[in-house]
Amino acid sequence: MSDALVIGAGPAGLMAAEELARAGLSVTIAEAKPSPARKLLMAGKSGLNLTKDEPFETFLAAYGNRATVLRPMLEAFGPEDVKAWAEDLGQVVFTGSSGRVFPRVMKASPLLRAWLRRLDRLGVTLKTRWRWQGGGNVDTPDGRVTLAPRVTLLACGGASWARLGSDGAWTRQFAPGDLASFRPANMGFVIDWSDHMARHFGAPVKNVVLKAGETEVRAEFTLSSRGLEGGGIYAVSRAMRDGAPLTLDLLPDLSVDSIRARLNTRPPKESLSNRLRKGLRLDPVKQALVMEFARPLPTDIAPLLKGLPVPHLGPRPLDEAISTAGGLRFEALDDGLMLRRQPGVFACGEMLDWEAPTGGYLLTACLATGRWAGRHAAAFVTG
C-alpha cells in the first residue's frame, strides 16, 4: 500500500507526486484516462506556453480576485522557477516578443517523457484507467479497489475538454457549499453571422484593440462560422462572460480626427468601400465587420472605427472552453490546500476556484499549486 495517493496525472498531479516522492513517501497516481497529461499534450500541439516573463506583480494581477490567495504559491514557484524546472528536464526554453515562454522544440511530449522518467526513478507508480469514486475507492479495469493511503491529493482538473479527462465528475464527492459553479474561461463567443461573412471565416483580424469593461488588449483574433475565437477574444473573455460589451478599435494607431481627415481626402462620390480601403488601408475583413455591425452607417463613421460595438449571443459551451472558472472553494481549504472537513486530503490545480488568461498563467498556477499541496501533504505525513 502506498503512503500517498494522487488522483489525476495532469501537471498539478504530477508535480504533487514528485514532491511527495522526494519527501521519501511511496506514491501511486490514479489516472482515469489511458495515458497521462492529455490536456498538456493537446496544448503542446500549438506550442507549449509554459509561463510569462514579466514583472511578478504584473504576472500576479492576471489572477484577478484570486491573486492574494495564490501569491505565496506563485512566490514559491513562479515564472523563473518554471523555466528552471523545464530546463532541468532537458528542455531549452526561449522567450518570445510578447514575453511568453516556450520550450525550443515547441512541443509538450519531450518534456512529459522526461518528467515521467524522473517520476519513475523516484519510485512513483502510475496507474491508468483508474477512476476515483470518492474516499479510498477507485474503479480499475479489474474492478473496484479500496485503498487506505496515509494522505490523498486531488488534482482532478476543471470541467472543460471532457474527452481529455477534465469532466468535473469529481464534484459529486463534495457538498454544494464547498463548490463554486463552473463557468467557461478563455472561450469563444457565438455570433449569428449574416451570409456575406462566410467568405471571411478562418480569417484573422489583426492589429486591433479589444475592450470589454476595464480589460483592454491589443491583439488579434479569428472569425469562425460559429463566432469569435483566438487569443484577443480569450484575453477579454472574462469581462465579456460577466456582461461587459465588446468594442473594437480597428485603427489603433490613428485618432478619430486623423481618420476623418484621411477620409475627407477621398472623392465625395467614391464608394464607402473604396474610401475605407484607399483612405485608411482597411483590409477586407475589417470592412466586413463594419458592414456587419455598424448598419445603418452614420454620416461620420470615424468614431465607429475607433469603437465598433460587437453584439454576441454569449460564450461557447463549457466543454469547449480552454479552461474553467469555479470549482472547489478556497474557503473549504486551509493554507496548505488541505480540506478542512477531511484531514489528510489535499487539492490543487484547475479543480480549485481560480481562473487566469492564456499566456502561461494557467500552467504556472497548476504547477505552483501542485507543488504547494504536495509539500504540505508530505509534511502532514512526516511531521
From TrEMBL:
Its cofactor is FAD. SUPFAM superfamilies: FAD/NAD(P)-binding domain, HI0933 insert domain-like. Gene3D superfamilies: FAD/NAD(P)-binding domain, HI0933 insert domain-like, Translation factors. Residues 183-323 form the RsdA/BaiN/AoA(So)-like insert domain. This is TIGR03862 family flavoprotein. The keyword Transmembrane helix does not apply. Keywords: FAD, Flavoprotein. Residues 3-375 form the RsdA/BaiN/AoA(So)-like Rossmann fold-like domain. Pfam families: HI0933_like, HI0933_like_1st.
